[in-house]
Amino acid sequence: MKIVFAEPIGMGKADIDAFSSTCVKLGHTVEYPEKRIEEAMKVRELICDADILVVEKQKISVDELNVCNNLKMLTVAFTGYDQIDVEACTKRNIVVANAPGYSTHSVAELTIGMIISSMRKMAWGDGQTRILSDREGFLGRELFRKTIGIIGTGTIGSRVAEILQVFECKVLAYSPTKKNIPGVTYTTLDDLLKRADVVTLHIPLNEKTHHLIGERELKLMKNDAVLINTARGLVVDYQALAVALHTKEISAAAVDIYEEEPPLPGDHPLLDAPHVLLLPHIAYATHASIKRRGEIVCANILNWLAGKPCNAVN
Question: Are 120 and 172 within one domain?
Answer without folding.
Answer: yes
